[in-house]
Amino acid sequence: MIPTAVVGVGQTHHKSRRRDVSFGGLVREAVFRALDDAEMTMSDIDAVVLGKAPDLFEGVMKPELYLSDALGAVGKPMFRVHTAGSVGGTTAIVAASHVQTGKHRTVLAVAFEKQSEGNAQFALGSGKGASLGAGGAFAPFIRSYIHRSGAPEHIGWKVAVKDRLNALKNPYAHLKIEDISIEKVKASPMMWDPIRFLESCPSSDGACAVVLTDEDGGKAAAAAGRPPAWILGASSRSEPPAFPGRDPVRPAACVQCADDVYAQAGITDPRRQLDMAELYVPFSWHEAIWLEAHGIAEPGDGWKMIDDGSTELGGSFPVNCSGGVLSSNPIGASGLLRFAEAANQVRGAAGEHQVENARTALAMAYGANSQYFSTWVVGSSLQPFD
Q1: Tell me: the pLDDT tens digits for 223-238?
Q2: Angle at 63 between CA 58 and CA 65, to 5 degrees
């Protein structure tokens, strides 16, 4: 398998409504930033992999057919990916696979969502006009986690505050809540017990793009003073929404995905060998759940890492230093944002939310009813553990 590197990252400024741009303009904003970061143009790109959430979210069917024109990628291979909310992460993995197998040398991965031009709540209800929303689907899983682990209710509040404080250090983040506090989160309305309004993700317009290339391209970038992020392991898994013995608090597909990535990367102790993580946390309690599912914390102990400050920027294992999904959520792009932010961390390109001396980083995304999972581990070198 050909070693593959991330050499360019770009994203938009995420907002509730990006009325200043069309779909094409939104995607171009992220793509051109990624190409500029890689010191490339579209002529250097061999293929494009595009991902977004269901077309019903905006009511525009098969947008990839005209976005190839909008990107200046006419005549280039264009692939569409869709795995619900995990699609951004899966898009990166599919793009990487084209390089790893030698099919293409340099591939552009791009994902987006323009929720302001559609009705995601209607779409989540399968077009029937009513829906519990994502929070309504996940609240029972969260209550089950709290029951099993004995976690106190303030854990969710702490995650909400941490991620919003991190977002203040991210110039692209959607939510900028200067006066965020435990008291403010606690006083916000209950949405789906135990999830409060300020423990929930926003609805954002935004896009993200990543340029991936082969070993020679990665080494050339490094020689030019642009450190790459090397992909040490990447995997995706899925499972049905219901089957005997299914555990939505610790989904088998998530655990298998993490195990696969760790085996590829040579990781046997993720808490020690990883320097940080970008986890897909649309509701604050998911941070504890995913810490455990990825073996970073023992079952029932994920909330303890949050409570003792380990997951804060500057803690022993920082999580979502960018502000995460709790601060920016263009659904189709949210997974790719996790993967891109992890890449920027090991490239030393994360700006004010940079983790000091980060050499390895985990990124994960999930979608649907905790059914689709995608994960990768990136490093500042191909042998970061030597």
Answers
A1: 999 999 999 999 999 9
A2: 165
